[in-house]
Design a protein that fits this description.
- The chain has 318 residues and is an alpha+beta fold.
- It is 21% helix and 27% strand.
Length: 318
Amino acid sequence: MFKMELGFNPYDKKNEAFDSYNLDRRANFLNSFKLAAGHIFCYNGDPRRKISSMKHTSRLDEVLDANIANNADSYFYVNGGRKQYAINTISCCFVDIDAGRDSSGNYLPSKEVMKFKQDALDTINNFAVKPSWVVDTRNGYQIYWILDDESRTLINKTTWNGIQKKLVNYFGGDARAIKINQIYRVPYTWWRKCWEKKAPYFTSILTGSTGQSINVKDLISALNGQPATVTIVPNASRTFVIPADLTGALSLVATVSQSQDCDELVCVFKASGANRVVTFSTGFASAGTLTVLSGKSGSVSFVFNGTAFVEKCRALEA
């Protein structure tokens, strides 16, 4: 069971990346990936700018020093490779879940993020296959399932990509952050993003994380046939929702607190493997469904009436 309580204030500037406990916990985390060639770390070259070149290193102390002394954000390549073609052994599956931003593109207040985290943690704790690690970040969680030795010999990139998409669907994760050469944050470092002008946040590993590896067959079994619930927050005059290919049933929930009269919502789906059913749930005027044929696409357009999204039209590829 993962617990939300950190035991310290993540905004307290006295938190130390080189604290002995944090050093040990971080080392256990990194060692659990069992990368033959070791980890590749990176950090932003100009922390003041959102877009800047990344500096790469195999030295953990270098990336920690950059995080502390230069206000850089510290990352590592989850599967140990900078280029997708260079990754021959897959060490884990993972997903990033994020509270998102408000209608103006700003990060949500801490109170709202905490509520999001509690709901997310309920979903994590109720999932059939316990994650190996859950890392707490400023805006959400980064979740890892470390693969055991058997799984690393069995899994290929096609199967792995399918699992990643299902994890995004199940947990409402960030579909942009599931590449095989993805970078995630090094735990027990400061979340900076100086260009956002937000207070630094000290990331950490949640209590309940053991680093225990899992068998990929169990993860596939837990995800197959599971209806995924995805929550969207339409906050523009026109919002497009294009989730990853459907690999199971999907329930779509719309949070309408930031929607305005006559806002449009367009949802586009593609089914993979079999016919897939999409259910339009909370936030929609009528709890209808859409059946998308295997290998085909379908779309539905809605307009906001001040209370909920009302269907305007739909189109299905024959």
